[in-house]
Amino acid sequence: MKRLLLTIGMLLWVSTSLAQTPMACCPHHMATAAQRNADTDQQQQAPNPYAGTPAGLSDAQRAQYLNGEGMGLAKPAEMNHYPGPRHVLQNADRMKLSPEQLASTQKLFDAVQQEAKKLGREIVNREDELVRIFSSQNADEARVKQLTAEIATLQGELRAVHLVAHLRERSLLSPEQVRIYDEARDYVPGEKPAPPMHPH
Predict the structure, then answer these.
(1) How many CA atoms lie within 13 A of 148 on its CB side?
(2) Residue 191: pLDDT band by 50, 70, 90 thresholds?
(3) What value does the mean pLDDT take over residues 61-76?
(4) Phi/psi at 6 (nearest 5 deg)?
(5) CA-CA distance, 104 to 92, in Å (whole number)?
(6) Where do the domains of the chain lie, and which CATH numbers do they carry?
(7) CA angle 158, 160, 162 (to 5 degrees)
(8) What angle in degrees, to the nearest 10, is found between the helix axes of 99-135 and 141-171?
(9) In the 8-state DSSP scheme, what is residue 163?
């Protein structure tokens, strides 16, 4: 009788232990736990994308703003048969620009550069100011909102400068010149032809 009770007690103990750790011997649970551990290790080993980078603009971004570069801001125009003055000048011979077209394109390019550089400097100055107020531990909500709003406005103005330049440039060109431009830039000709040249 004592032996029977002892056996029953051992069985109950084993059953209770298994009930408390029901997933311990489950291969799926073990795999899941291993995956969690692997994910945790990967997260711990993943490099911080911010490490070693500037708090504000990168050198490349700063140079693009200060040099009046397009930065892809006029891509909707460029990719839809509205040539930009910079690349028209680069392809002037291939497009067979007249002296008048060449002079007008150069004038447009110079005006865009001047305005883009001006706006770029203002954007850079405000981006630098953002970095300064945070690095000095003196950032406040009102100033942060003011600076970010000004940056957004300036970026919108800068994009408009580049997009409008493409509008004005296409008005200087013939449909055939636009086609040649697209070909030179490896763009697929569109279904809608470019408008005829309109004198200013």
Answers:
(1) 8
(2) very low
(3) 94
(4) -65, -40
(5) 12
(6) 2-45 (no CATH), 59-184 (1.20.120)
(7) 75
(8) 170
(9) H
